[in-house]
Amino acid sequence: MVALTVLALAPATWLNATAGPRVRTVADAPAAPVALVFGAGLWNGEPSPYLAHRLDAAAALYHRGTVRAVLVTGDNSRRDYDEPDAMRGYLLRHGVPARRIVSDYAGFDTWDSCSRARRIFGVHRAVLVSQGFHIRRALALCGAAGVDSYGVAVAAKHDVTWAYGGVREILAAGKASLEALWRPDPHFLGPREKGVTEALR
């Protein structure tokens, strides 16, 4: 029983050990060309509170000069659900210029977002933005995808969503370890896009 428990927790331990030292705050995040913001759900077509907190941090990174562009990545797998455009609209309302925002409409999960950031958008270095319960997995997967990154862990209210996120991360760590090892293609690859290159000009 103890051996099974250790085996089950090994992927989560790996995530904390490898990615933990790269977790920062908005105030001390190293400069990078791009902030990569992961989707976190919509409420009535607008960013959920968790997603809004991520976008607030990304806007702060931009206004501080830590990053020069923001890549928003999320789910647009159906016509009535569009995370990237909702994220873009939120950033525009918070003073990030349109020319500095790039949208990835096929960021269906964390691996897809990291893999596509590197392979489709040509991102080599980034500051990742997510809640603390998710940021280490994002850092590990973006590292495996070839993106040199630090992460900003956005504070989150310890509510039911936070508790669910923590439990989910333990389960997702196993999948992440396999993705980091095998590095599969994302669900949708598609052609290279110039959005990030143009946003950085």
From TrEMBL:
It holds the Pfam family DUF218. It comes from the Bacteria. Residues 34-152 form the DUF218 domain. Keywords: Signal. Residues 1-19 form the signal peptide. This is Membrane protein. It comes from Streptomyces kronopolitis.
